[in-house]
Design a protein that fits this description.
The protein is built from eight helices and 26 strands. It has four domains: 13-30 and 189-335, MoaB/Mog-like domain (Molybdenum Cofactor Biosythetic Enzyme, Chain A), CATH 3.40.980.10; 32-53 and 162-187, Molybdopterin biosynthesis moea protein, domain 2, CATH 3.90.105.10; 60-149, Molybdopterin biosynthesis moeA protein, domain 3, CATH 2.170.190.11; 346-417, MoeA, C-terminal, domain IV (Beta-clip, Beta Barrel), CATH 2.40.340. It is elongated. A hairpin with a 2-residue loop joins strand 20 and strand 21 (308-313). It has helices spanning 15-24, 170-178, 221-231, 246-258, 277-284, 317-335, 386-390, 414-418; strands at residues 32-36, 49-50, 60-61, 65-68, 79-86, 99-103, 115-118, 122-126, 135-138, 148-149, 160-162, 183-187, 191-197, 201-202, 217-218, 235-242, 262-266, 286-291, 294-295, 299-305, 308-313, 346-349, 361-368, 374-376, 393-397, 408-413. By secondary structure, it is α+β, with helices and mostly antiparallel strands. The two termini are 34 Å apart. Helices cover 19% and strands 29% of the residues. It binds adenosine monophosphate (AMP) and magnesium ion (MG). Residues 196, 198, 200-201, 217, 219-222, 266-268, 270, 314-317 line the site of adenosine monophosphate.
Length: 419
């Protein structure tokens, strides 16, 4: 049910307005903790990470080959005596005119050398013998600086390599490690209580598929919401399924509000007689029930119970999934101090028609085809979770704007949203 009989219809709220209101209600968490850089994936930095050294720390070879003086090879003989050997981790000596240093990737370029010639461009004339060093012929004219990775070309001393508010992913952890950071100061994890509402819900594993009573369905939302929250760096208190009655809903909300930053629920946010979220939250705190102009996912609720935020998602699985991505995800990012949380879309060609655009902004489940265009999943119903699995992202369709075959559309990859 979308509205109680006779209730006046409120105009639908544009998604951007809903998001702006939701984000405006967030006070970022201020508590921080030190974690091992190993364990910081998905967390948000609470302080700038500033480098106390330059990276690379020294000029080093980008190749296995020979360190040379480019000048030696511009004129005259292209034969050089190999007078030193510098492996990664070793240090060379001053390179004299007419000589080369055998060098390996990552080894410091010896003083006096200004280029590296790759070994494929050299011929060994003779090996070391009778006290005479190995001699090579260089079959190329090196340019000064070639195949040298210069000190500081990646990071300068004093550079802020990662600003506070950065959400860490494996690349950031590597960069932090490259300047010697074994620990990082991150925002503490948001604590989120999660429950699903619905008398029809059955947990997988408790009733076999062939024994499911009429009208019953398995609780699927709980599985993706729990894991979406974990991916967002949250500590989740999973409160299971709450039956469709006022008392049970109030009791669950009270429990959840006691020691969580956020209470996230699915289902029961419409205004039918079996939707108990609204009156239950209102009896304990405040609630805004929004009808958002998006499809899937029209009903959405935000409120407060004590210090905790309440967020109510619709029950339909795809609605729940999409509203999490477009609203809850930026909310949780902001809660952890990430400033830039907007979804990033890219222009991709639609290899489908969407002739009847809805009045609401739509998020279609699509996937890339072998020709670089997007195919549309055949069933865009908000209950068909297969669409989210088949798809590799969403097309963001403006209200009332049909899509013509071949047109460029705004594609939002799931990869960017689920990371
Ligand atoms: P509601 O928002 O409670 O009116 O639910 C809308 C639809 O979503 C109904 O068909 C519900 O059975 C379904 N639904 C609600 N919660 C879940 C859930 N946790 N898992 C799967 N389907 C659900
Ligand atoms: Mg329900």
């Amino acid at each position: 049910m979308t509205s109680a009989p006779g209730a006046p219809r409120k105009p639908l709220l544009p998604l951007d307005d809903a998001l702006a209101q939701l984000l405006a209600a967030v006070s970022p968490l201020t508590a921080t903790e030190q974690v091992s850089t190993f364990d910081a994936d998905g967390r948000v930095l609470a302080a700038n990470v500033v480098s106390e050294l330059q990276v690379p720390a020294f000029d080093n070879s980008a190749m296995d080959g020979y360190a040379v003086r480019a000048e030696d090879l511009m004129f005259g003989s292209n034969e050089l005596r190999v007078t030193q050997r510098i492996a990664a981790g070793a240090v060379g000596e001053q390179l004299q005119a007419g000589t080369a240093g055998r060098i390996f990737t990552g080894a410091p370029v010896p003083p006096g050398a200004d280029a590296v010639v790759m070994q494929e461009d050299c011929t060994r004339i003779h090996d070391e013998r009778d006290g005479e060093p190995e001699t090579i012929r260089v079959n190329t004219t090196p340019l000064p600086g070639q195949h040298i990775r210069h000190a500081g070309e990646d990071v300068q001393r004093g550079d802020c390599v990662l600003p506070a508010g950065t959400r860490l992913s494996p690349a950031e952890l590597g960069l932090a490690a490259s300047i010697g950071m074994a620990q990082l100061k991150v925002v503490r994890k948001p604590r989120v209580a999660l429950f699903s509402t619905g008398d029809e819900l059955v947990m997988p594993g408790t009733v076999a598929p062939q024994d499911m009573p009429p009208g019953a369905i398995y609780n699927s939302n709980r599985f993706f919401l729990l894991n979406l929250l974990r991916r967002m760096g949250c500590e989740v208190a999973d409160l299971g399924i709450v039956p469709d009655n006022r008392e049970a809903t109030i009791a669950a909300l009270q429990r959840a509000a006691a020691d969580n930053d956020v209470i996230l629920t699915s289902g029961g946010v419409s205004v039918g007689e079996e939707d108990h979220i609204k009156p239950a939250v209102q009896s304990l705190g405040t609630l805004d029930l929004w009808q958002i102009a998006i499809k899937p996912g029209k009903p959405f609720a935000h409120g407060r119970i004590g210090a905790a935020h309440f967020i109510g998602l619709p029950g339909n699985p795809v609605s729940s999934f999409v509203t999490f991505l477009v609203l809850v995800r930026p909310f949780l990012m902001r809660l952890q101090g990430v400033q830039e949380s907007a979804m990033k879309s890219i222009a991709v060609r639609a290899d489908f028609d969407w002739p009847k655009a809805d009045k609401r902004r739509e998020f279609l489940r699509v996937r890339h085809n072998a020709n670089g265009g997007l195919d549309l999943f055949s069933n865009q119903s908000s209950g068909v979770l297969t669409s989210a699995v088949w798809g590799d992202g969403l097309v963001d369709v403006a209200p009332g704007e049909p899509i013509l075959y071949g047109q460029a559309v705004r594609f939002i990859p799931f990869q960017g949203l689920l990371a």
